[in-house]
User: What shape does this take?
Amino acid sequence: DTVLTQSPALAVSPGERVSISCRASEGVNSYMHWYQQKPGQQPKLLIYKASNLASGVPARFSGSGSGTDFTLTIDPVEADDTATYFCQQSWNDPYTFGAGTKLELK
Amino acid sequence: EVQLVESGGGLVQPGRSLKLSCAASGFTFSNYYMAWVRQAPTKGLEWVASITNSGGSTYYRDSVKGRFTISRDNAKSTLYLQMDSLRSEDTATYYCTRRVYYGYYFDYWGQGVMVTVSS
Assistant: This one.
């Protein structure tokens, strides 16, 4: 299976820019997607196919990358962005998710 | 507004069965592939199974093949997951998701239903 590696946690101050990385163990073309999950809630789609903003998602969120290295950027970070962020690939079977990056606000 | 509402979860003993349902509304259910994704307590997300819009083809992760069955009733706009021979490692919150055909990502998620497998 394709393993997606994310850093476990990040802490930033409101107003700053944060980049969350996701590295795939093998190429996934541009089929990398990002989700936000707040405590006690279901995941929410943020970015699809590496760089496309999902409907209703603020333009503070952006995505980039291709192949094996991908980045989710939030700029500027707001207090409401406290959550865990998961990447997911759908190029190789089975679809796999990263373990998630927990974003905390200072 | 797209809504996915799961039901049928609960506590079940190892080796027993459980059937989850997901009632969909706010979109043309028969036009979309659907999937189940689960999340073990304090763990990450794991794709479980997918089904085509017609129900003609189904896909499973290896660990549930032969034990779980995904199905749908387009007339009732409902997705199902029949889970047999349950194991402790199946304990998780199960999410019903709508899968986008061309991108193979999940654009809407239900609130989730908890399944606990324990004696």
